[in-house]
Specification:
37% of the residues lie in helices and 21% in strands. It is of the alpha/beta class.
Length: 308
């Protein structure tokens, strides 16, 4: 179960709209919410004429306290236990430290759907990327769409957080990193998930390599693929099965990132669950080029739950 969530707020364009989503999180056991706002002194140095002053910090803190107190009362009306904290420092580090100190079950972050908008939680070179890397807890990145006349996007069923956990997609390449998502899936109450889609994309580069082998090699590859899906079922304790009509197996061929995104957009799925690799021994290469999971998060075709 997911009892406690940490919600990072920067008082952007749609944070208040996202509060209604917490009602749906109660389906997975949410009872306590910790609100966090981070005052980052570095944000004051955006120009040569900006100077960070301690009194500026106090003004921002008072403003944040008023906002957080209002949000606290709003969420308490829905039966949640709510507390808030204001930290000063690097956004990613402070959120990661608070998540660890509070021993929360998952972190909730917002991300705008408009890729042109380089807001607080845009991806590369921003706090969101750092938070995902530095936080040890699962992270739910909510895809939110601004609702105003000048927006190119419109709110519809695909962007709503209602019934977010009813119909989920688990994308796996059968690596140990992707299997990190299985314990997270098992935390969701069995009666909440109506359909789990296990999605695997056979990399087109791999297919081109196999064509150089004999037919027996190709058949052996297909058999191994079936065995790998069986290992996923064992990991899920057979909670999901075709005879129960609560699982679907989907295999695509092509570029993994593109195929996953296309599948989400074509089917209108609301939640994708991923295991996250994070930094490896070639950390700088990981940052520059990104893994499939990182590119999918950047594209954000739907809300994404990241297992760590």
């Amino acid at each position: 179960m997911f009892n406690t969530a940490l919600y990072a707020i920067n008082f952007g364009d749609f944070y208040y709209e996202n509060l209604d989503c917490f009602i749906n999180y109660s389906k997975i056991g949410l009872k306590e919410i910790v609100l966090i706002h981070v005052i980052d002194p570095a944000l004051f140095h955006h120009s040569l004429y900006s100077v960070y002053k301690k009194e500026d910090e106090e003004k921002i803190r008072k403003f944040a306290e008023i906002k957080l107190e209002d949000i606290k009362k709003y969420l308490e009306k829905s039966g949640f236990g709510v507390r808030y904290v204001i930290r000063v420092g690097n956004v990613a580090e402070e959120i990661a430290d608070e998540a660890k100190a509070e021993n929360i079950d998952f972190v909730v972050l917002d991300k705008k759907a408009d890729a042109k908008n380089k807001g607080y939680f845009s991806f590369y070179g921003s706090p969101l990327y750092d938070i995902i890397l530095k936080t040890e807890k699962p992270i739910l990145v909510m895809r939110r769409v601004l609702f105003h006349s000048s927006s190119d996007f419109r709110n519809d069923a695909k962007t709503s957080c209602r019934n977010l956990f009813d119909d989920i997609v688990f994308a796996t390449d059968f690596s140990d990193f992707s299997f990190k998502a299985i314990p997270l899936i098992l935390k969701i109450p069995v009666d909440v998930v109506k359909l789990l889609t296990v999605l695997h994309v056979i990399d087109e580069k791999l297919i081109r390599g196999l064509k150089d082998f004999a037919q027996a090699e190709l058949e052996n590859y297909e058999k191994n693929l079936a065995d790998k899906f069986e290992s996923v079922m064992r990991g899920l304790d057979y909670r999901f099965a075709k005879e129960k009509s609560n699982i679907a197996i989907v295999v695509k061929k092509g570029a993994p990132c593109k195929e996953v995104i296309d599948f989400i957009e074509e089917t209108g799925k609301k939640l994708l669950i991923l295991g996250f690799k994070g930094r490896d021994k070639e950390g700088i290469k990981e940052i520059l080029f990104g893994s499939t999971a990182e590119r999918i998060i950047n594209a954000l075709p739907c809300s994404i739950f990241i297992a760590k």
